Amino acid sequence: MTLLTDVAPRPSALGTVGAPTKLVVVVALGVLCAVSSSRVVLASVAAVGALALVAARPVWRRLGGLVVWWGVALGVTLALQWLTRDLAVAATSGLRMAALCLPALAVMASTGPEELLDTVLRALRPLRRVGLDTGTVALAVALTVRFVPELVRHVHTLRDAQRARGLRPSVLVTIPLLVRCLDRSRTLAEAVVARSFFDRSDDG
Amino acid sequence: MAEPGPTGFRPSEPHLAGGLARRSDKGRLEAGTAATTPPARPRGDAQPGQHRRVNAELVRARAVAEVALFAAVIVALGMVPSVYAFGLAVPVTAQTLGVMLAGAVLGAKRGTASVAVVIVLVVASLPVLSGGRGGIGVLTSPTGGFLLGWLPAVFVVGLVARRALRLPPRARVCGLVGACLLGGVVVDYALGVPWWSVVTGQDLALTAAQAVAFLPGDLLKAVLAGVAAAAVHTQVRLDHMYPASHG
Amino acid sequence: MAVFELDDVTVRHDGRTVLRVDHLVLPERRIGVVGANGSGKSTLLRVLDGLVAHTGQVRLVGDTVLDTVRDGREVRRRVGFCFQDPADQIVMPVVADDIAFGLKNRQVPVAQHAGLVAGVLDRFGIGHLGPRTAATLSGGEKQLVALAAVLVLAPTTVLFDEPTGTLDLVHSLRFAQTLAGLDIQAVVATHDLELLDQFDRVLVLDAGHIVADDAPGPALAVYRELAWAGAR
C-alpha cells in the first residue's frame, strides 16, 4: 500500500539496516537513558545518535516539525533546571533529552513510512490469536489516511459556514463532522463487504 | 397538506421524507449484532416475522470504518488552526478533543482502536500530530507520555460514556463531560506528567507546575467534548453503545 | 448473464416493512428502479447483493443457483455495487491501490494487478489518475474511479444506487453513455428519468411495494402519477 508522503528519505547506509532493528534499538536506548543518571552514558548515547543522524542524511522537511518541538522543550527545560537547581543538573537534563531525541531522529531520517508501517503490522501478527487480523489493521490505516484530507476540507467548510452566520468558529463544528462520519461508515462498510474484503483467505 | 419538497414530490410516508431518518437508518444494518454466524437454514424455509441475521461481516466492516474515520478525525483536528484558551500564550489544539470524542461516541473498544491507529501512524513517521509532528521521536519526547496516555484515557472515556448513556437526557450530558474529564484529563495527565518528568530529569513537582499551564485548556476541551458527544448521540443511534435489546 | 429471483422477501426495520416482494424475476439487461426517497429502492438493491437482512429467498441463477445469504461470497464475485456517493466507496488513499483492492481480496495474483488496473483505467480514459490521491479527484473523476474499481473484478451484474445523484448534467449524460457501452447487466436505482429511457424494464416502488413493473414509458407514467398525487 502506498501512503501519501511527499518526501522519501534519502538513501544512506543507515537506510539498509532493517526497520525492526532500528526501532528496537531506539526503544532500548530510550529505556536506558530514561533510568540512567550517568552523564557519561547519556553523552555517549547522544554522541552516537548525533553521528547516526548525520549518517542518515536527514531531509529537514520531514523532520522539521519534530525538531522544533524538541528544541523548544530543550530550551525551556534547560532554563528551568538552571533556575531551580544548578548548571550541573541542567546539563544532565540536556544530555538526557539529546540522548532520547537524536537516535530517534536518526531512525526517522533513514526509514520510510511504508517500511515502518510494515514493521508495525508484522509485529501485530501474533495478535491474530486473539482475533486481530493484520489485514483489518492495514485497512483501517489506509482508510484513515484516505479520509484525512477530505475531513480537513470538511472542517474548513463547516468553519466557513459558521463564519458566514456571524459566529466565531467553535469546536461545535465537530458535531456535524462526526455525524457525517458515522453516516459514511455505514456505506463504507457495505462497500468493503461488497468488494469481498472478508472473503479473503487467512493470509491477511 | 405538507409542502412538496424541491423535486415536487411528497413521499407517501411523510416521516420518510429526505431519506430514511438517520436514527432508524443507523439501526438497519445492525440487526443481529451478535458476532456469531447464522444457523444453516434448509432451502426455501422462510419463516414469517423471523429475520435472518445480517452478515456478521457488515458489523465488523462497520466497526473498521468507524474506527478509521474517527482516527482520521483525530488527525484532521490536529491540522486545523488552533484556538487560544483564555488568551494565554498556550495554543490549544482540537486534537485531544478528537481523542475524547472517539471514546465518548464510539465507546471503549472502538475508541481505543481509533487512538491505536493514530499511534501506528505516528510510529510510521507520518506527520499526524498537531504541528506536523510524527515519528518515534515523539514517543521519546517529553510529551510522549501524553500520546501513549491517550490509550488508557480513551478507554476510560468510553467505559464511563457508555454508562452515561443510560442516564436520563439531562444527566447524560454531565455524565459524558465527566467521562471526558476523567479519561481525557485525569488519566492522560497521570501518564503524561511522570513521563515528562523522567525524560527531562526535572522534579515531578516542577513538571506538574508546568503541566498546570495546559490544564485550563484541557478542562475546557473535556467539557466541550462531552457536550458535543451528547449532541451526536441524540442525532445518531449507535447500537453497540447501548445494552443489547432483545426481540 | 445471470437472473435474479426473489421469493417472498420482506425487509423490516424498526417494526416497519421497508420492502416487500412476493415474487420477482429479473433477467433483463437494463433494469431501472424508481421511487421516492424511502420507497425501498436502495433496499431492493442491497437485497440483491446480500447486504441487508431479509426473510424469504433471493437467488442469483446463472450456471449455478446461488442464494445471496448462504452463498454470499460467490454472489459478490458476480455482482458489483456502485454506491450513491463514490467517495464512500473509495477505500485506499491512492487510486491505483483502490482499484487493486478488490483484486487483492479475491486473491488475483499480484503480478497481474498492474496490468488489470491500467487496463480498466485506460478504458475510461483516466489512466493518468492512477498515481493520484483520492482526495484530489473531482466528483466525476471519483465516480469513474469507483466504477473502474468495480468493473476490474469482471462482474456479470452491477447494481447502481443513484449514480447520477451527485453529478451535473454533463457528467450525468456521460455516465449514461458509459453505461450504454458496458457489457453487463445493470440494475439502477435512480431519480434520473432520462437515464431510464433506454432501459428494458422499470420497477416503480412506493412505500416498499412494487406498484408498477413495465417498459420505461408506462412505468414512468405511473411514477409521475404517484408524484402528482403526492404533491397535491
Give a verbal description of the structure:
The complex is a heterotrimer of chains A (about 200), B (about 250) and C (about 230). With about 200 residues, chain A is an all-alpha fold. Chain A is built from seven helices and no strands. Chain A has helices spanning about 20-35, 40-55, 60-85, 85-110, 115-125, 135-165, 175-195. With about 250 residues, chain B is mostly helical. Chain B has helices at about 20-30, 55-75, 95-125, 135-140, 145-165, 170-200, 205-210, 215-235; strands at about 85, 90. In chain B, helix 5 (about 145-165) packs antiparallel against helix 6. The radius of gyration of chain B is 22 Å and the shape is globular. Chain B starts with about 20 loop residues before the first helix and ends in a 12-residue tail after the last helix. With about 230 residues, chain C is α/β, with parallel strands linked by helices. Chain C contains seven helices and ten strands. In chain C, strand 4 (about 55-60) and strand 5 form a beta hairpin. In chain C, helix 3 (about 95-105) crosses helix 4 (about 110-125) and helix 3 (about 95-105) packs parallel to helix 5. The model of chain C has no long low-confidence stretch (mean pLDDT about 90). Classes of the chains: A mainly alpha (about 200), B mainly alpha (about 250), C alpha/beta (about 230). Chains in contact: A-B, A-C, B-C.
